[in-house]
Design brief:
The chain has about 475 residues and is of the alpha+beta class. The protein folds into three domains: about 100 residues, Uridine Diphospho-n-acetylenolpyruvylglucosamine Reductase, domain 2, CATH 3.30.43; about 110 residues, Uridine Diphospho-n-acetylenolpyruvylglucosamine Reductase, domain 3; about 210 residues, 3-Layer(aba) Sandwich (Vanillyl-alcohol Oxidase, Chain A, domain 3). A hairpin with a 4-residue loop joins strand 7 and strand 8. It is globular.
Length: about 475
């Protein structure tokens, strides 16, 4: 193997040459696989969910064990090479892939073990939500997760994690009970309430700033295998009336009932009448846990708001419901998101959302609003790194399209909508919805917890080895360089 040039983004921004012997030593230390330019599987490994990300790591370590992660982290630190970490590869910012550095790829570490007696589960750092659901649901158990089964458990959890069950059971991090972590000096530690509790606090919402989590341990909840779930679609002309009812009804609804709304052009889905394809609609996505009879009573008001375009709310397996949105968020599209958080759906905010939904630059773009509250808000804001516990609504502005010619229009639409909604927002933001250029909003994501996170970063990662994330910079001035 000849010498390889790494076009790295180090703290000095320099390019470094790593000797072939060092690379050979790294490869021989692995239980997994080392990929370089031209290796079989290299392009597959560097390809992630967001098609706008097209970067080429000089080395990809497809890890099979925690020890592989240790060796990759040590190699990056000792050679001053930029390092990225891929879990599920779903994160919008694309920080899973670095340019010219070393990518730690956890995608082969997807095992999930369930302990039914203690109602706990252990999931590998590369596991997807579908892996966890498929392991736990045969027992009627769940970890409260997100809403796309192809999402990686690592990124979701480390950023906070909310989905259909969070109003009842809290965020994903509120159900995390332990983690195996490779920290910047190559040590392997176990973090929990009793072991490295400061690190455990930071992992619960602090993103990938403090290390590589190779195994997560979760508490499980019993919900059975069937939930009442589905979508009710109303005409876009009724959006204001639907949202006015929603804002009065949902904050007082039982915590077993989750409902998010989406404003978009009606997709050409089989359950949407053909005459409605491409027309403005508002979609209420609904999931209710508990006895079906009680669930049907809870959800009835949301199904009787006037003319219905389609109603597919019905009892269904929870694992099927968790996959219902996968097609709308499949890999391979170009994606650019923006986000804000709110405590109320004011008239001005509703008008703004409806106006922008009517003027999307591409029919794949949409505006989704998640409703939180309930168990999320009962956790003190300083109990975990995730600080914005009192937020009631989080908007995800989905710029999504396939033709690169639409880049400018779709990005501008997302940015302009975020700017237009900022006057109604709390000023906070969900870290998992932030794009790569939003480093100036990291403090907003963590609020009063930010300075504690800086101190924690300085302790566990003083040279900012783990910088490809929504970065919390240590106090010694190791600034983040751009991806190029």
């Amino acid at each position: 193997m000849s010498d390889l040039q790494f076009n790295t983004h180090t703290t000095t921004g320099s390019t470094t040459t790593v000797q072939a012997t060092s690379i050979d030593q790294l490869e021989s230390s692995l239980d997994g696989t080392l990929l370089t330019f031209g290796s079989p599987g290299y392009d597959e490994a560097r390809t992630i969910w967001n098609a706008m990300i097209d970067r080429r790591p000089a080395l990809i370590v497809r890890c099979a064990t925690t020890n592989d992660v240790v060796n990759a982290v040590n190699f990056a630190r000792e050679n001053n090479i930029v390092l990225s970490v891929r879990g599920g590869g779903h994160n919008i910012a694309g920080n899973a892939v670095c340019e010219g550095g070393i990518m730690v790829d956890l995608s082969q570490m997807r095992s999930v073990e369930v302990d039914t007696q203690n109602r706990t589960a252990r999931a590998g750092g590369g596991a997807l939500l579908s892996d966890v659901d498929e392991a736990t649901q045969p027992y009627g158990l769940v970890v409260p997760l997100g809403i796309n089964s192809t999402t990686g458990i690592a990124g979701l959890t480390l950023g906070g994690g909310f989905g259909w069950l969070c109003r009842r059971f809290g965020l994903t991090i509120d159900n995390l009970i332990g983690a195996t972590v490779v920290i910047a000096d190559g040590s392997v530690v176990h973090a929990s309430e009793t072991e490295h509790p400061d690190l455990f606090w930071g992992l619960r919402g602090g993103g990938g700033n403090f290390g590589v989590v190779t195994e997560f341990e979760f508490a499980l909840h019993e919900i059975g295998q069937t939930v009442l779930s589905g979508m009710v679609i109303y005409p876009g002309d009724d959006a204001r009336r639907v949202l006015e009812f929603y804002r009065d009804f949902m904050p007082n609804a039982p915590e077993e009932l989750a409902s998010w709304f989406v404003l978009r052009k009606a997709p050409p889905a089989p359950f949407v009448p053909e005459e409605w394809h491409g027309r403005d609609v508002i979609i209420l996505a609904i999931c209710v846990t508990g006895p079906i009879e009680d669930a049907e009573r809870m959800v009835r008001p949301l199904r009787e708001l006037g003319t219905v375009v389609a109603d597919i709310v019905a009892p269904m397996p929870y694992v099927a419901w968790q996959k219902i949105l996968d097609a709308a968020q499949s890999a391979g599209a170009r994606n650019y998101w923006k986000s804000n958080e709110f405590n109320e759906l004011s008239d001005g905010l509703i008008d703004t959302l409806i106006d922008y939904a009517r003027n999307v630059p591409d029919p794949n773009c949409d505006i989704a609003m998640a409703m939180l509250g309930g168990a999320v808000a009962r956790v003190p804001s300083d109990a975990t790194a995730y600080a914005n516990r009192n937020t009631l609504y989080a908007i995800n502005i989905h710029g999504r399209w396939f033709d690169p010619a639409n880049d400018d229009a779709c990005i501008a639409w997302a940015r302009n909508l975020m700017a237009a909604t900022t006057q109604f927002s709390t000023g906070s933001v969900y870290v998992n919805f932030m794009t790569a250029e939003e480093g100036d909003r990291v403090r907003n994501a963590y609020g009063e917890n930010y300075e504690r996170l800086v101190a924690l970063k300085t302790t566990y990662d003083p040279t900012n080895v783990f910088r490809l994330n929504q970065n919390i910079q240590p106090t010694n001035g190791h600034q983040v360089e751009g991806q190029g």
